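Handoff note, outgoing to incoming analyst
You'll be picking up this chain. Sequence as last confirmed:
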Amino acid sequence: MFSPEGPTLRELAVQALSSVERGYDLLAPTFDHTPFRTPAPVLAAVGSVLERIGPFDDGLDLCCGTGAGLDVLARVCRQTATGVDFSAGMLDVARRQPPEPTGCRVSWVRADARALPFTPAFDLVVSFGALGHFLPAELPALADGIHAVLRPGGVFALPVLAPPGPGSAAFWTLLGFDAAMRVRNAVWRPPFVMYYRAIRFGALLRELRRAGFRVELYALPEFGRRADGSPRARLIAARRLP
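Most recent structure output, in case you need it:
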């Protein structure tokens, strides 16, 4: 699963026994050599949809990590792209590998996604692979915070994958991972919040609508369809109502 440049098992164990912030500070130098980095095909597919539903002037990458999503923002935003993350280590790596120049000004801010320090200054907020770091009880505040930093008509975009079926190895792998994390957090402090199945698709849509978004779903055809004909991957595009 990991390249030779990626973290060792010992380094991953130390990270897992740290807080989320400290864990990602430790993982930052090797993060891009792990499967946790958002794959390029996902970034490209999301960028293609955003180009169709734009234009956008100012974008925010929520929980930007080492900056993979900033490449998308620099592609679809005409003025500014801002990355926000609470891990100083991840931001340091992101600053050292900025997006290719497009005329869009890029900046980085260290802050907690649950308490964003921005006015309604963005037309687009994106997030890739960060939802598992929030507990279901935090979802209302997260949705309200994203709503608060978007201008009226602005879009929150979040790619989601269809959950694997109970008969698949992936289903039991994710279930086992979440169970292990719950045991870890029950016996060890500080907690490390990372769950693959804690926040359900329906609950997420309900909270976005409650917060004042009109939610649209776009299939990402690059990833095919399941046996029942539904897309394997979708982009949630939640538009802030006036």
